[in-house]
Specification:
Beta-galactosidase, Chain A, domain 5; alpha+beta; 13 helices; 21 strands; eight-stranded antiparallel sheet
Length: 544
């Protein structure tokens, strides 16, 4: 069984990925030092200061020596102990990103960087991995040669020390770009080098700068769909990618400015469409709240560059991404009728075709189950599974074969059969097969959204199958008020809504809602049974 999983996972990879995966395993990168350049000048000109990539609320206890990442807290001192092997990898990565430099004054920020430099020798695991190295390079350039440039350049000792370590880190990064992973990892690598090369133009040869620039523009074109969304289809990572575009937009460079304005305006527009009325992102695929700076802050920062998101109400569609929805008067509906993501990098994908989220009168009502952790675990399996989403499970099999923490083997492709919209709402119909039975079982779903605040969902399962279930996950604050004939009345605070259904009555089950990493809240899930005899169900959600 394991060999089949590997086969169906590997067959989607690009040749380049396989080559670099093998190279990394059998001929790993050998760290080497570089003779430091002591005459590097900071030559970039900026439009203004840089905004932080993460919320300030995550960093309020730094001076107590308590570092908090992904809702995991540990007292490690200040400056911290940089080697914490008892913590999950994602926590250790965050420690070495140095995102929190943005919230420190110059002296404390300099103290932290000096501590990192002296405590993390060349090649130290985690500290010198390409991904945290990329983020650290970006943060140090933005904080010290952007926000604190005057203080940095007047502190000769620290300035020299910082230039030396950043030069070394940039050279090391350029030699270990993450071609084995691609996706957002490679984009971060290249964005970091673009930022560094603009800050220190003489640090790299013209040939290396041209290589970085060409690779960056190639990935920029590939990783952002024409509809503006980042191609891994995670609102959380799209938030991060948009922040990177803003960082690059803050650099006065004619070659960058035209491209950044083009991509940034579309990325901001897409971000607005995957943002709920509460100002936070949707939780489709690998997405969690509180990881990156909220959308509103990015929209405000972008306005300083003269780039504004389009203010659109009513129906919207990101057709290349497969996201369709509605936003108006506090009502927000977003459904996913697209593929799980790029075939060669589905690491952040969930088995969630025809999943949807719904806010009514500004409050989240129907929710995606979110993401709990990034390690191979029972909760990781659950959050990526089809039953954790608001869609149909056939014969207890996930729509796509998600396994381990970030892998996908066999997967299916949905088809949009019909889509029509107007000022009053929209109708979307799509279908998807079942990979284990070679698409001999078919799930067809119809969404009908009306401006008045009514959603109707209809499911038909046809073909040879034993049993299927249609899941609907409600926000933990939604409480059952009463049960009437073919109707359940729920409330969330002062908001009341009805879930009406046909003759097939749902059961109420317990499930998990994980809006943030390592946060697990119990919520209600409605489950409708579907059988070969009763192969169609329909329900509607209406504000009352």
């Amino acid at each position: 069984m394991k060999h089949k999983l590997f086969f169906h996972t590997l067959r989607y990879l690009k040749f380049r990925q396989i080559y670099y995966q093998l190279k990394q395993r059998f001929k790993p990168y050998v760290f080497r030092s570089f003779k430091p350049k002591t005459n590097l000048e900071v030559l970039w000109q900026l439009n203004g200061t840089f905004e932080p990539p993460v919320p300030e609320s995550n960093n309020r206890k730094l001076f107590e020596g308590i570092f908090s990442f992904n809702n995991l807290h540990k007292k490690v001192g200040f400056p911290p102990n940089w080697d914490n092997t008892d913590m999950p990898k994602i926590w250790r990565y965050n420690l070495h990103y140095l995102d929190y430099l943005f919230f420190l004054d110059f002296e404390e920020a300099a103290k932290l960087v000096r501590s990192w430099k002296r405590s993390c020798p060349l090649g130290m695991p985690i500290a010198w991995d390409a991904y945290p190295l990329s983020l650290r390079l970006i943060n140090c350039c933005c904080v010290f040669y952007g926000n604190y440039r005057t203080q940095t350049e007047t502190d000769d000792s620290f300035n020299m020390e910082l230039k030396e370590t950043l030069y070394l880190q940039a050279q090391i990064l350029e030699e270990q770009l993450e071609f084995h992973l691609l996706g957002n990892h490679l984009f971060e690598n290249l964005a970091a080098l673009m930022i560094y090369c603009n800050c220190f133009p003489s640090a790299f040869s013209d040939k290396k700068k041209a290589k970085v620039r060409n690779l960056f523009h190639r990935e920029l074109k590939e990783q952002f769909f024409e509809d503006g969304l980042h191609y891994e289809l995670s609102p959380m990572y799209h938030l991060r990618m948009t922040w990177l575009l803003l960082v690059l937009s803050n650099i006065k460079n004619e070659d960058l400015e035209s491209d950044m304005k083009f991509y940034l305006s579309r990325a901001l527009n897409a971000l607005s469409f995957v943002t709920h009325p509460d100002g936070e992102i949707s939780l489709l695929n690998d997405s969690a709240l509180g990881i990156y700076t909220a959308p509103g802050s990015l929209f405000t920062w972008a306005e300083k560059f003269g780039v504004k998101k389009k203010i659109e109400h009513g129906v919207f569609s990101l057709r290349e991404s497969g996201y369709y929805g509605w936003r108006e008067s506090g009502n927000y509906f977003l459904c996913d009728a697209g593929i799980i993501g790029p075939s060669y990098i589905p690491a952040h994908a969930h088995a969630d075709i025809f999943n949807f989220e719904l806010s009514l009168l500004g409050e989240r009502i129907v929710v995606d189950s979110g993401v709990y952790d990034y390690v191979s675990s029972e909760m990781r399996d659950y959050c990526r599974s089809t039953k954790a989403h608001n869609t149909v499970v056939i014969d207890s099999v996930n729509q796509s074969e998600v396994w381990h923490a970030f892998r996908v083997a066999r997967r299916v492709k949905p088809r949009v059969l019909y889509y029509v919209s107007d000022s009053q709402g929209f109708v979307l119909e799509g279908e998807v097969g079942n990979y284990l039975q070679k698409n001999k079982v078919n799930h067809k779903r119809n969404f009908n959204w009306l401006k008045v605040g009514k959603l109707t969902v209809s499911d038909i399962v046809s073909g040879k199958f034993s049993k299927a279930k249609s899941y609907l996950h409600l926000h933990p604050d939604c409480k059952l008020e009463r049960n009437e004939a073919n109707m359940l009345i729920f409330c969330k605070g002062e908001i009341r809504f009805a879930i009406e259904f046909d003759d097939i009555e749902p059961t109420l089950e317990k499930s998990w809602y994980c809006p943030e990493f390592y946060t697990r809240l119990e919520n209600i899930c409605l489950v409708w049974p579907i059988t070969a005899r009763q192969n169609e169900i329909s329900y509607s959600i209406t504000i009352i």
